Amino acid sequence: MAMTFNTTSIPLVQIPASGGLPFHVDAYCADVTGCEDIVAAVAGKSHYIKRIKIRVDGIGGTVTVTVGSGETTSAPTKIMVGPLSGSKEITGAGYAPASLYEYDFDPEGKNMGRKLTLSEALTIDSSAAVPVNVSVDGVTV
After folding, report:
1. 3-class DSSP state for residue 106?
2. Cα(99)–Cα(105) distance, integer angstroms
3. Alpha carbon of 13 to those of 9, 63, 139: distances in Å?
4. Helix (H) or strand (E) holding 56
5. Which residue among 11, 32, 101, 110 sits deepest, i.e. has the most Cβ atoms within 10 Å of its Cβ?
């Protein structure tokens, strides 16, 4: 199932220190099994991930989510974070709790963040069909 992008903002201004293009992506997918692109690959360039937030909505059982770069046999080629465990158990009130993960790879704003492999997309995969929301800030250089 494909990602639905709530907002994709790629300003046409350069960051003076890196010469790269900053991006912010908010995306949702009801099922990321089989691996989905969050940020598409750009030939000859690398994505630097500054911050990423992942929300996994629950629906019964357990699930793991993995974020990385590239795709090999329906999973990220190189793992950046994960597998992240999430509970999908239904509460007594009938609501499924969500698991929220936040990573800041540039907390002081001094670096470019976590570098992905050259010419590879930022990808996400899960062990079960669950709704996932992802918010990513980064730079493509």
Report:
1. coil
2. 20
3. 11, 39, 11
4. strand 47-57
5. 32
Query: Do 47 and 113 form a contact (C-beta atoms < 8 A)?
Result: no
Print burial letters for 10-32: b (CB count within 10 Å at least 16), e (below 16).
eeeeeeeeeebbbbebebebeeb
What percentage of the chain reaches a pLDDT higher than 90? Answer: 16
What does the buried/exposed string (b/e) look like for 47-81 if buried means 16 or more CB atoms within 10 Å of the residue's CB? bbbbbbebbbbbeeeebebbbbbbbeeebbeeebb
d(CA 60, CA 127): 13
Question: pLDDT higher for 61 or 132?
Answer: 132
User: Counting Cβ atoms within 10 Å, is residue 45 exposed (0-12), middle (13-18) or buried (19+)?
Assistant: middle
Whole-angstrom Cα distance, residue 46 to residue 22?
12
For residue 48, what pLDDT is reported?
92
Whole-angstrom Cα distance, residue 82 to residue 63? 11
19 pLDDT higher than 70: no
